[in-house]
Write a structure and sequence with these properties.
single chain, mainly beta, 7-stranded antiparallel beta sheet, 7 strands
Length: 111
């Protein structure tokens, strides 16, 4: 039994339909799962924080970067657009979800 296959199937449970829009205009339909909403503290002497949403998807070739956006289709068929941002701690746009690379990625959007 491969635990990563099981975790991958669980990742699709309660997933939302979304469209990932690259800065080039390419639209990629994906399933995303909201992992958390956190307040990322600003370093470098700045007071305050930024609300960040963490999303995960099995589309491991997505590679989010600056200028990309996520458009999520809600249950009532309305859409919400989120701008891709960096994680305040690692300064990365995306990372691997599990310790075994190549299974699922997480990426960050502004709230």
């Amino acid at each position: 039994m491969n635990p990563y296959k099981t975790l991958g199937k669980l990742g699709a449970f309660n997933a939302l339909s979304a469209t990932f829009i690259k800065k080039s205009g390419e639209e990629i339909p994906i399933l995303v799962k909201q992992e958390s909403v956190t307040d990322e503290q600003l370093d470098g002497g700045y007071l305050g924080s930024i609300k960040i949403r963490v999303w995960s998807t099995s589309a491991i070739d997505l590679r989010p970067e600056e200028g990309d956006a996520l458009v999520v289709t809600n249950d009532d068929e309305s859409t919400t657009r989120y701008v891709i941002t960096r994680n305040a701690v690692s300064s990365r746009y995306w990372d691997w979800r599990y310790s075994r690379n190549g299974e699922r990625i997480v990426f960050y959007t502004r709230f």
